[in-house]
Amino acid sequence: MDIIYNKEPIAYDAAMVIMQKRVDDVIAGDASEAVWFLEHEPCYTGGTSAKAIDLLNPQFPVFETGRGGEYTYHGVGQQIAYLIFDLKKRQQRPDLKKYIYDLEQVIIDTLSSVDVKGERRSGRVGVWVVLPDGSEEKIAAIGVRVRKWVTSHGISINVNPNLSHYSGIVPCGISQHGVTSLEKLGKSLDIADALLQNIQKTFF
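^ thats the sequence. predicted structure below, dont judge the formating
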């Protein structure tokens, strides 16, 4: 498996070209699996379930993508990990729901390393935190695409993005809950090493 780090934010469309080439090569047996850590230049992306009504005031470029899910925001201050895995190798029996569950667990374990309790919610993909007043806010998103059981896209954890940028969309189609970040919670911001360790522990 290759571990790849982007030092500078990369445009979403440029990243998609690179990622899909890697997926093609893994399917063809010409490349190894990979985990790619990066940040995107500010943009909104729509998954296969995205609804036009949820695009409220797009102040950044909008990209339609083949991943699952609805509209989300990407920008500087998010820790993104794109996972290009062959699920035939990673699971005894390829199972997309199990893969998403495992990605949620990777995020929950990573947040735990900085004393943040992340939680699942039935019917809401991603990871949430409960605030002292009992309200819930989303801290991490998951969007996945699978082709011939090779995965692409992955996870995004809000470290210290500009949360006001989410105002241009209804994030993931959910209007009744907010969005948060590690910075907003007053927590440590360096989680890349912990994230990689939990990915390796879960899938390898």
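The radius of gyration is 16 Å.
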